[in-house]
Predict the 3D structure of the following.
Amino acid sequence: MSKSQWLRTPLFPRYARYEGVRCIDFGGWELPVQFSGIQKEHEAVRERAGLFDVSHMGEFYVAGPEAGAFLQQLTTNDISSLQPGKAQYTFLCYPDGGVVDDLLIYMLEQDRYMLVVNASNIDTDWEWLLQHAPPQGVALRNASPDTALLALQGPLAESILTSLCEGAQPASLRPFTFIPDALVEGIPALISRTGYTGEDGFELYVAAEHAPALWDTLIQAGEPLGLLPAGLGARDTLRFEAALPLYGQELSASISPLEAGQGRFIKWNCGEFIGREALSKQREKGISRSLVGLEMIDRGIPRAHYPVHAAGLKSAIGEITTGTYSPTLKANLGLALVHRAYADINQLVEVEIRGKRLQAKVISLPFYQRNRGNRAPIHH
């Protein structure tokens, strides 16, 4: 795909205001990897607040008397546990247990739901829903082109958003709940509290035409408190430190939720769903590979797809799914999918970096957890 064919969010014209902005191709979208610098933006979210344009994400509406039963058959979590104003994280799976996509489901009202899916999978997910929809009782609508999504993240996010809201108060939201009809300085928005950074924060879903005004409003209110616009680079380092999976790296058609350490989002007592039989067999037999956290002992940064070895073995025991220098923990860390025999905490392994095997150690996940203090690196 040439640059002229890249998709742009409704906020693209705002990017030009920032001298340090750098855009890249992200799944066919022209999106900012940074506005002022990845480390600066990362630290702003950890310490103050950051604002992300994530309008490339997809939004589908599923409605009708059979909507709940339809979604229960397609997804791994328990749809029946939802009620209006609540959301859940879940998976669409293939029959073999691999992941079609990971997504959020919002219950808007009885028999009406909003699904939020990954940008790279919008077409795949939409076709998956159409393929499995019953002939009647379910109406589907792809609202992705008409919807913008801003994520306000960080310890000051609540106070910034509260100062702008009329009526409904963001502070009243518990995690994975939402206000469907909030007003932010007069702009109608659905406000939820989920987050993809390891910090407190909010998502604001608005009509695409309202996105620029909402962006300006949030920036103006947050800048005096140290809020920075943040790009894909900081989004990735933040979610990585919190060990939140990214589709295409920790989850994929060939990596199941159980292998990715996400078994808590599979509910076994809610009847049949696509992939249940294969996942049940994985659970009974035990998974052959597991997602682990690694800290480098030798100097070197692990990167995606670098092989992971065990001392004395010629063939690899796995590979890095995501790796980087952690701005918060000041350490070179990696997520790796490795053979289960080498997944125990404190297990020594070797990461192959530019032809050299460098020593690393399996450590517990997540690397960083809010309100529990920064996890100290093992080695410096």
